[in-house]
């Protein structure tokens, strides 16, 4: 605290010793080099450089705003068709290309798939073998001869054997067959062998059932040909339900995939025999008759309805419905749908639906690859080959390929997946592996990869992924993750904000990574990579550090002169700020929403630390150079340092977006201390350039009012200069209270001195321009000059708010206590007060120039009023003056702001009062009409200057000289007796104000006998009389008389005895006066007590006088006017000795030479004054 107090005291002493700009002229630094030793100061040179200086400052101050605007423009980027930058390709990620031999084997597999196609193709599939072969030849780059050889080999090979997988899922809305309103449903299903071609038209009309009459069954020639036992399967019985759920799967081998039929019955089970056990026994029976009999036993359920006989073998009520599906009608990808239940005959009544999933697949393939490789591996190779071909032929935005392949490719891939019985999960995994691997060499749309991940997640079944597939899926996740981390590390080059397409890709990539790490599949196959966000954080840190190092390598701030180094460092920090801005506006949102990583905090802390270290080292070199003796800071160097400071401030400002716990100890926390000595010198440069700018503005000013304003261009330029300097300080935002106090004090002093300098320069310009100008043009220019000064003064009146004086006071109070706050208040307000006084002085000087111009005319008009004969009307006498004032008022009102108009009108009013007072004083003792005319003139001027409430206030005008003039006019209009009465009234008033004087005092007692109309005066004693004799004493006596004499013409003055050689005489003498009520009722009626010093050889000397109004003793009701008046306490009156000639009344009476009463009164007073002068 002691240090801070010392610092404040030092600043205050500097402020108190500082001279105004009128006498302080400091030389500017030379521009020869950034830091130069200058033993001799160079003279100031005014140039356009000062204007350019402030333009550069403005550009620096707007840097952050421009950066925000650019960042906002990046955030609002629209669709962009320009390809994003090439994404980094790591050679380690590129898979080995397949050999020609393997391609031939893979081509054989593809041809085999085409040749053995089954199922109903979807509309998007290609049906022509030739079209598919033509496509495959392009994919595999296969010649026609090679194709024919492979095709012949496939045709000679054994055809594929097919199986049918049937998943009986559930049924709904079945008929109720039991008395409880429910049924106990179960399904029996099997394959009916193919029909002869001529029966093709009949097979759709024929209804099949596993419960045929024996007669019909026996008509068949062979059981194996019609209904093999191995083709019959049965589900479990679901008791008491009309909406059973089975979810059971069965596989049937198919002999003729083109002609066989799937048949399914749903029955209501009523006996206690286990259907599953019976089905097993059924499969052991050979021959149609044995199978029929046994099936009848397990499937028959006779429900007695009163008419059925024991020999009845079937009851339609047990039958719930059937379904017949021809295998050649099953789509390529199979069925997954609800089938409506059909009746067995027209007599059957059925209802409801059954959900089945059907899929045909091969159980044996006669190809070379299928014999030595897995179906999964073969399909992955086939898909990879097709992907490479398809992507190569994408014409528009190949980087944004969504993975959609052509119809032939989709046909081949679909048939191969179906034929090799790949599950949806296996297909999803294969597609992910192929597309993600392909992406590492030829980028695709990240939304495709995200969609593939979601497909895996939707189909995920951990038991279904084991062994090689689990290992391969883990590898694909690992490789893709490493690829993405590598891209994150180089994200600034790969995914720049300037590319809308790149940012979109980056967002999708991050979503994919974020989705992947939360997938159950990822957690299962990559159990050790459960902290992917740490890997992302590491990649971001490393990428940020490498990017900063590349920035340093590009700008090389360590090379060149110190000025060049700092300039390059500014470029580095600006690039860092722009990067941090992008991190906060764009990248952070992507990272946090996708992977819950705070990208901004990671990159900001990394860049802030590296930038702070480099700037700190550079500023240490600067400070070391500046501290050298006689070293000066050049303007160019100062601008660079200021720009560097502002860039660092912008960079530091991003800390507000950090989490609270991360924003405490940052490397830039106290960076302002690195610039303290530089900023001191920098403010001096700003001051010098401001002065230059003000000079240029004054020189260029034509003193013509701007549009819709009453000031000229220089005032606008000066306040604009002040605004920019103020903005410089606001942008500096100095955090240290002691440093802020020093800088604010310095800035305030600069502002004040510049304002005073500006006012003086404008005044000098007006003085130079007044020669040869007419009254009106000069008045207009002078008004503009006054308005200019007022405009600047009003602007600087906001300095406490603009420079946040209260904030500085609070900071100093916190650090130094109440004394610190008080010193700040005194120092800053003292500067502003002195500046205001200086500006007012200059304004008064300008107004004096105006009134001096008006003086001859005003004097002529006042003289006209004074010399006008009594026969002239008052209005006519005053009209020339009022006409002149009216014309002048029009000019002033049009060209002056309200504050200045009031000042000018006040000066004119005071000037006119003085001129009228002089005229009246010079003409004392003339006729009353003379004074009445000037009284009329003053009243007319009062109303003129009040201007119906728009001008001066009556209160302001009726003060000072007005009171003197008004009294002068009033008294001059009085008679001599009235003046004498006024004289005594003033004496009585003055007596009442006396409390103690050096002339002593006198004690008297006065009482009045009303019936006798007699006033008794007892002069008791006096004290502390002044010594008027050589012996240091006096010979005092008292003269008592009634005044004024014209009121008491019969009263004689009376006197006491002389008391020799004393200053404290005791008289104890009585005097009687006749006083009538008509006399004592006047306020000016009084007793005067004149103390004189008796001299034997010369005239008596005046020692002092006191006055007592008769109203104090004679008025009815007073104690002195009662019979007990003799017992009242004596009155002590203090003596006074004033020169009568000093009073205006005396001068007025003295001027009335022909008035005997006036001359007699003046003579008596002059005698007293003469005795005083002889002393």
What does this structure look like?
With 1175 residues, the protein is an alpha+beta fold. The protein is built from 40 helices and 18 strands. The strands form five sheets. A four-stranded antiparallel beta sheet has the order 5-2-9-8, with no helix packed on it. A four-stranded antiparallel beta sheet has the order 4-3-6-7. A four-stranded antiparallel beta sheet has the order 15-12-11-18, with no helix packed on it. Residues 1-46, 196-200, 202-208, 211-227 and 284-317 have low confidence and may be disordered.
Q: Can you give the helix content as a percent range?
A: 40-55%
Measured by DSSP, the beta-strand proportion falls in 5-15%
Structural class: alpha+beta
User: Unreliable segments (pLDDT under 50, ≥5 consecutive)?
Assistant: 1-46, 196-200, 202-208, 211-227, 284-317
What is the CA-based Rg, rounded? 60 Å
Number of E-type strands:
18
Overall body shape: elongated
Mean pLDDT: 83
| Main beta sheet | 4 strands, antiparallel
Gap between N and C termini: 65 Å
Number of helices: 40
Query: If strands are numbered along the chain, what order do they take across the biggest sheet?
Result: 5-2-9-8
């Amino acid at each position: 605290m002691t240090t801070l107090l010392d610092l404040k005291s030092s600043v205050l002493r500097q402020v108190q010793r500082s001279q105004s700009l009128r006498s302080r002229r400091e030389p500017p630094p030379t521009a020869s080099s950034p830091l130069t030793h200058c033993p001799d100061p160079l003279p100031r040179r005014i140039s356009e450089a000062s204007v350019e200086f402030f333009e550069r400052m403005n550009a620096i101050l707007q840097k952050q705003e421009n950066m925000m605007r650019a960042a906002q423009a990046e955030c609002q980027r629209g669709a962009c068709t320009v390809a994003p930058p090439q994404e980094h390709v790591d050679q380690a990620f590129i898979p080995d290309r397949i050999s020609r031999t393997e391609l031939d084997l893979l081509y054989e597999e593809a041809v085999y798939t085409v040749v053995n196609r089954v199922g109903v193709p979807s509309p998007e599939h290609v049906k022509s073998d030739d079209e598919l072969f033509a496509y495959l030849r392009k994919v595999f780059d296969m010649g026609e001869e090679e194709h024919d050889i492979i095709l012949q080999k496939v045709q000679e090979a054994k055809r594929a054997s097919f199986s049918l997988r049937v998943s009986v899922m559930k049924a709904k809305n079945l008929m109720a067959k039991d008395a409880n309103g429910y049924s106990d449903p179960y399904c029996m299903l099997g394959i009916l062998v193919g029909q002869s071609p001529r029966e093709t038209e009949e097979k759709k009309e024929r209804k099949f059932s596993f419960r045929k009459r024996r007669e019909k069954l026996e008509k068949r020639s062979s059981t194996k040909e019609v209904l093999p036992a191995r083709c019959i399967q049965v589900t479990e019985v679901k008791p008491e339900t009309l909406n059973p759920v089975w979810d059971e799967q069965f596989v049937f081998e198919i002999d003729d995939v083109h002609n066989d039929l799937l048949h399914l019955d749903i029955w209501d089970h009523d006996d206690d025999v286990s259907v599953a056990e019976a089905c097993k026994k059924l499969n052991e029976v050979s021959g149609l008759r044995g199978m029929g009999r046994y099936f009848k036993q397990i499937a028959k359920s006779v429900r007695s309805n009163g008419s059925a006989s024991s020999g009845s073998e079937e009851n339609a009520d047990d039958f719930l419905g059937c379904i017949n599906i021809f295998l050649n009608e099953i789509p390529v990808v199979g069925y997954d749908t609800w089938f409506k239940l059909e009746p067995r005959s027209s007599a059957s009544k059925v209802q409801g639906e059954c959900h089945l999933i059907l899929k045909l697949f091969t159980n044996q393939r006669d190809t070379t690859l299928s014999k030595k490789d897995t179906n999964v591996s073969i399909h992955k190779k086939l898909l990879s080959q097709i992907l490479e071909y398809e992507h190569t032929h994408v014409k528009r935005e190949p980087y944004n390929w969504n993975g959609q392949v052509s119809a032939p490719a989709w046909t081949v891939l679909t048939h191969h997946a179906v034929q090799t019985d790949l599950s949806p999960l296996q297909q999803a995994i294969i597609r992910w592996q192929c597309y993600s691997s392909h992406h590492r060499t030829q980028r695709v749309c990240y939304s495709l990869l995200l969609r593939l991940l979601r497909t895996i997640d939707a189909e995920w079944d951990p038991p279904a992924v084991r062994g090689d597939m689990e290992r391969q899926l883990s590898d694909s996740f690992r490789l893709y993750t490493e690829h993405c981390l590598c891209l994150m590390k180089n994200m600034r080059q790969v995914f720049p904000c300037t590319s809308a397409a790149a940012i979109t890709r980056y967002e999708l990539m991050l979503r994919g990574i974020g989705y992947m790490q939360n997938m159950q599949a990822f957690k299962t196959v990559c159990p050790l990579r459960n902290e992917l966000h740490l890997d992302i954080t590491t990649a971001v840190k490393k990428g940020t550090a490498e990017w900063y190092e590349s920035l340093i390598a590009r700008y090389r701030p360590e090379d060149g002169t110190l000025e060049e180094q700092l300039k390059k460092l500014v470029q580095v920090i600006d690039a860092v700020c722009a990067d941090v801005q992008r991190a906060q506006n764009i990248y952070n949102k992507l990272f946090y929403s996708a992977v819950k990583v705070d990208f901004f905090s990671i990159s900001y802390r990394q860049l802030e630390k590296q930038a702070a270290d480099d700037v700190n080292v550079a500023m240490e070199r600067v400070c070391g150079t500046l501290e050298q003796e006689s070293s000066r800071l050049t303007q160019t160097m100062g601008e660079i340092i200021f720009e560097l400071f502002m860039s660092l401030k912008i960079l530091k400002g991003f800390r507000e977006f950090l989490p609270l716990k991360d924003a405490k100890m940052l490397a830039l926390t106290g960076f302002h201390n690195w610039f303290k000595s530089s900023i001191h010198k920098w403010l001096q440069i700003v001051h010098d350039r401001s002065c230059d700018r003000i000079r240029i503005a004054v020189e260029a000013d034509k003193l013509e009012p701007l549009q819709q304003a009453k000031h000229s261009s220089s005032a606008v330029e000066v306040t604009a200069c002040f605004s920019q300097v103020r903005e410089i300080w606001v942008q500096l935002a100095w955090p240290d209270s002691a440093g802020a106090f020093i800088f604010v004090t310095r800035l305030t002093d600069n502002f004040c001195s510049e304002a005073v300098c500006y006012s003086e320069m404008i005044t000098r310009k007006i003085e130079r321009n007044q020669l040869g100008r007419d009254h009106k043009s000069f008045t207009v220019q002078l008004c503009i000059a006054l308005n200019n000064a007022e405009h600047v003064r009003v602007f600087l009146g906001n300095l406490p708010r603009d420079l946040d004086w209260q904030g500085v006071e609070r900071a100093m109070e916190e650090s130094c206590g109440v004394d610190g706050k008080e010193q700040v208040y005194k120092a800053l307000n003292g500067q502003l007060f002195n500046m205001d006084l200086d500006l007012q002085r200059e304004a008064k000087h300008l107004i004096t120039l105006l009134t001096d111009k008006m003086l001859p005319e005003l004097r002529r008009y006042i003289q006209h009023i004074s010399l006008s004969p009594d026969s002239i009307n008052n209005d006519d006498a005053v009209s020339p003056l009022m006409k002149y004032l009216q014309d002048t008022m029009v000019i002033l009102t049009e060209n002056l702001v309200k504050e200045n108009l009031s000042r000018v009108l006040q000066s004119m009013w005071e000037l006119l009062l003085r001129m009228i007072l002089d005229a009246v004083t010079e003409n004392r003792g003339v006729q009353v009409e003379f004074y009445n005319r000037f009284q009329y003139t003053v009243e007319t001027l009062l109303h003129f200057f009040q201007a119906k409430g728009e001008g001066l206030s009556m209160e302001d005008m009726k003060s000072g000289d007005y009171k003197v003039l008004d009294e002068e006019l009033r008294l001059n209009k009085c008679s001599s007796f009235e003046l004498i009465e006024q004289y005594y009234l003033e004496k009585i008033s003055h007596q009442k104000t006396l409390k103690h004087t050096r002339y002593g005092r006198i004690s008297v007692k006065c009482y009045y006998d009303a019936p006798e109309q007699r006033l008794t005066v007892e002069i008791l004693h006096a004290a502390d009389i002044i010594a008027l004799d050589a012996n240091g004493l006096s010979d005092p006596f008292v003269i008592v008389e009634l005044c004024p004499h014209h009121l008491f013409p019969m009263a004689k003055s009376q006197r006491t005895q002389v008391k020799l050689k004393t200053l404290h005489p005791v008289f104890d003498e009585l005097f009687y006066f006749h006083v009538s009520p008509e006399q004592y009722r006047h306020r000016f009626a009084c007793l005067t007590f004149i103390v004189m010093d008796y001299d034997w050889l010369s005239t008596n000397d005046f020692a002092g006088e006191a006055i007592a109004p008769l109203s104090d003793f004679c008025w009815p009701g007073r104690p002195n006017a009662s019979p007990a008046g003799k017992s009242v306490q004596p009155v002590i009156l203090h003596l006074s000795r004033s020169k009568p000639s000093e009073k205006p009344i005396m001068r007025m009476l003295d001027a009335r030479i022909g008035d005997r009463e006036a001359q007699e009164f003046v003579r008596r007073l002059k005698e007293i004054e003469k005795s005083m002068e002889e002393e």
